[in-house]
Design brief:
This protein is an alpha/beta fold. The chain has ten helices and eight strands. It has a single domain, classed as Rossmann fold (3-Layer(aba) Sandwich), CATH 3.40.50. Strands 1, 2, 3, 4, 5, 6, 7 and 8 form an eight-stranded mixed β-sheet that branches. The longest helix has 18 residues. It is globular.
């Protein structure tokens, strides 16, 4: 179960990759724009200022997220749907999926299918975290092994930029793929470690769901010690490098060019 309030911690830091991704989409007057994995919806609504004439739709598999997003206003419509079941209509000129596909093992096949099924000249923009070898995630896997929930953690669910570029080129799309490491300076408030609070809203969800209350409390305390050692505070902040993988592709036009 996704908790919109927990996920929205560090909302400014989470928004920056989305904005950087959308900035590389060259669509001028798209007919329809879809945000797959829209979460609580604020970033989806920001697309209305970029493309005010487009029909804007946000889609998420979490009832809690869709409920939160649907209460924000009428600039976009929001639907409950697993991304694996989504199929593009013939007027979808921009498809955006931000920090979602790392949860979907078969996302490479989905990207290929979407690129083939989107209209000619449509844009497909994707961002996924690439920090699965970071100290935070190594600590999660190490502690999870001690609690017999290592199977709920993931080592490398995403490709590098070259992998996604190759995938899009294989279906005839033009592509721009890159990676960025953001250095988030998270305030150290003196209570809970900020990196622990960050991963609690994402990577730790499956672990928390599998443990009872007492085991989760002990797991969280053990992980807090590991994370504090890996990310020491200095000057009132914790430096948290975060690598992200980006890909923006454009489908071939009717004339065979992208």
């Amino acid at each position: 179960m996704w908790d919109p309030a927990v996920y929205r911690r560090y909302g400014t830091e989470r928004a920056r990759p989305f904005l950087d991704l959308v900035a590389r989409v060259g669509a001028e007057r798209p007919r329809a724009v879809v945000d797959l994995g829209c979460g609580p919806g604020e970033l989806t609504l920001s697309l209305a200022s970029r493309w005010p004439d487009a029909r804007l739709t946000g889609i998420d598999s979490s009832p809690e997220m869709v409920e939160k997003a649907s209460g924000l206003g009428s600039a976009a419509s929001f639907r409950l749907l697993d991304v694996r079941g989504w199929e593009p209509d013939n007027d979808i000129d921009v498809l955006i999926t931000n920090a979602t596909l790392q949860w979907v093992p078969e996302h490479r096949e989905l990207l290929s299918r979407w690129a083939r099924e989107l209209p000619p000249g449509a844009w497909l923009a994707m961002q996924v975290p690439g920090n699965f070898d970071a100290p935070s995630h190594r600590a999660i896997r190490a502690v999870a092994a001690r609690y017999d929930v290592a199977h709920l953690t993931r080592e490398a669910p995403v490709d590098d930029p070259a992998g996604y570029a190759s995938l899009m080129l294989s279906v005839g799309a033009s592509v721009d793929a890159w990676e960025t490491t953001y250095l988030h300076l998270l305030p150290d408030t003196g209570d809970e470690h900020p990196v622990l609070r960050w991963v609690e809203g994402t990577a730790l969800r499956p672990v928390k769901a599998a443990l009872n209350e007492n085991a989760w409390r002990e797991f969280r305390a053990d992980l807090a010690r590991e994370i504090a050692a890996a990310y020491p505070a200095a000057g009132g902040y914790v430096a948290f490098p975060f690598r992200r993988i980006f890909m923006v592709a454009r489908t071939a036009t009717a004339e065979g060019t992208s």
